[in-house]
Amino acid sequence: MDRIHTLGRHMCPNKQLKQPIKVTVTGAAGNIGYAFVFFAGQGRLFGQDQPIDLTLLELPNSKRPMMGTVMELDDCAYPLLANIRTTTSIDEAFVGCQVAVLVGAKPRGPGMERKDLLSENGKIFKAQGEAIDRYADRDCKVLVVGNPANTNCLIVQRYAPSIPKQNFTAMTRLDQNRADSILASKIGVHSRQIRNLIIWGNHSATQVPDASQGIIMNYPQPGMVTAARGAVSNDKWLTTEFVETVAKRGAAIIQMREKSSAASAASAACDHIHDWFIGTQSGQIVSMAVISDGSYGVPEGLCFSYPVTCQNGKWQIVQGLQWDELTKKRIEVTTKELIEERDLALQSLAANTK
Ligand SMILES: NC(=O)c1ccc[n+]([C@@H]2O[C@H](COP(=O)([O-])OP(=O)(O)OC[C@H]3O[C@@H](n4cnc5c(N)ncnc54)[C@H](O)[C@@H]3O)[C@@H](O)[C@H]2O)c1
Ligand SMILES: O=C(O)C[C@H](O)C(=O)O
């Protein structure tokens, strides 16, 4: 461990604070990691009464920017940030870890698909799965952000067999938030008024944004709730342009920024963890990629984005939703892609260990 920085609980102004939750962030000096740690320090993960201990993991050649990030975190003096540790050792990074946020990986550049990162990033997630299996808290909860996120999550889970399967998730919350914002601007409302848009399948161009369950709160007047389909009143747009714009938003951002999305990804990671731990509101559905139990005919063991509700730190897949023919076809495509990614990843990991 390179550094332990202890602010000390006595320095926290709120005497009612609980024991800190141990959060490990990989790729902490990267674009997403850099935004995420400040959001985490501000209490976006578990609320304003829950301190955290942060452990930051980076590659040795990014140690200096990681230390610089810690200097800035120190200077923020966040009351909820009890301890900060930094390391470049994967073995140290996950000791006692209760929440692992796996960001550290290579991002795609212009013209690449996320699955082009499969073989390089697969090795990272295998090693992290093994380290989580060995060193983390037995109920460690994992969020995979690094791409291809679903398949990397499947790899981590496979290499951490002693941790419950339900504890491994990948992020499609960014896609959900994008869907909310695109629909909100179409209708002329705030994204926070949009609920229950669903992302099915892979965090890739084959993902299936689905507005069939969507509702608009306080629309057209305060106190009223309107179905998204009724509010848009243009099914063609909802099943074509809307779906494509959401699915290609990541690529569109890369075109503009010449780098992949960062702050919005970090913010979505906070939303994901927050809802998982604190719970969704009554009637609220969010999207999370989880290890499939076979629900909706998806092969067991794939990491597939489903509509879920969360309570008491556990997610539950919303069952019994119906798909129209077009959605059904799209879901077949995204499922097929996930099967191909899984097979490719497992083959390439097996070849590497020979
Ligand atoms: N799921 C999503 O919605 C979503 C959204 C945006 C980006 N991403 C993905 O997140 C990943 C990170 O993106 P970024 O923009 O922060 O990239 P970045 O290149 O800015 O940062 C990645 C950081 O990870 C570090 N790193 C690499 N391998 C590591 C390892 N084995 N252990 C620890 N640290 C390691 C690097 O040193 C770097 O600092 C990419 O794969 C990107 O495609 C996912
Ligand atoms: O698109 C990418 O490669 C980065 C990220 O997955 C995103 O959706 O913004």
Automatic annotation (TrEMBL):
It holds the Pfam family Ldh_1_C. NAD(+) binds at G27, A28, A29, G30, N31, I32, G33, N121, V145, G146, N147. GO terms for molecular function: L-malate dehydrogenase (NAD+) activity. It catalyses: (S)-malate + NAD(+) = oxaloacetate + NADH + H(+). PROSITE patterns: MDH. Keywords: NAD, Oxidoreductase, Tricarboxylic acid cycle. It comes from the Eukaryota. It is an enzyme of class 1 (oxidoreductase). The active site is at H203. Its EC number is 1.1.1.37. Residues 172-343 form the Lactate/malate dehydrogenase C-terminal domain. Residues 21-168 form the Lactate/malate dehydrogenase N-terminal domain. NCBIfam families: MalateDH-SF1, PRK05442.1. Belongs to the LDH/MDH superfamily. MDH type 2 family. This is Malate dehydrogenase. It comes from Tetrahymena thermophila (strain SB210).
